[in-house]
Design brief:
2 copies of one chain form a homodimer.
Chain A (H helix, E strand, L loop, with lengths): L3 H12 L5 H12 L4 H8 L3 H22 L1 H23 L1 H16 L3
Helix pairs in contact in A: 1-2, 1-4, 2-4, 3-4, 5-6
Chain lengths: ~110, ~110
């Protein structure tokens, strides 16, 4: 289970395209650029409360998309299944051959992100 | 490039959760169960034209979701990159070792669907 901040960032990456431009901008500043609410408020010339409200509403929407499509949940399941397959291949290959292939296995793992 | 019928079926699997229940039911009957428009119309007791209109509107929406999130496009890219990595591993492993791991590679490939 990842923490809520990281989870919201992941939801933003998955479903950000479904938000309005304004919502996406604010969430990206907050979750990716790590700006504070005050900094975003000053930059966009709206109140801190205004930023907070947009953020809360957008997070609710991202969670609704996740309830409907479950992309984050499915990704986590895929990574778990992939790690499982990796372990079986490691047993079969032995340590040396497995190490030889490790860069490729890492490349494949990145495809699940 | 997959044909339009198969592509719409894939879009349905990816984004069906964002459609209304009625839209999803009709699209599943058409694209997954392969019923005709006339069969769906009779089953739901609406006109054939009504079924057609719901189908067309839902397909437009699925395409808008794909424009916004690009899950199908990204999946196709991932499969292409995975096949590429597989080829490099095949060269490195030699035919016999590669064949030994083939069931696992297939299992991994299924994770991209």
């Amino acid at each position: 289970m990842i923490d809520e901040f990281a989870r919201n960032g992941s939801l933003l990456e998955l479903y950000g395209g479904l938000l309005t431009e304004k919502q996406r901008e604010i969430l990206e500043l907050y979750y990716i650029e790590n700006w504070s609410l005050a900094e975003i408020a000053e930059y966009l010339k709206i109140s801190r409360q205004g930023v907070y409200d947009i953020l809360q509403r957008a997070i609710r929407q991202l969670n609704i998309f996740e309830e409907k499509l479950g992309l984050l949940r499915k990704n986590e399941q895929k990574i778990a299944r992939y790690n499982n397959i990796l372990m079986k291949m490691q047993e079969l290959l032995g340590e040396d051959n497995y190490k030889l292939l490790l860069p490729y296995f890492e490349e494949i793992k990145n495809l699940f992100d």
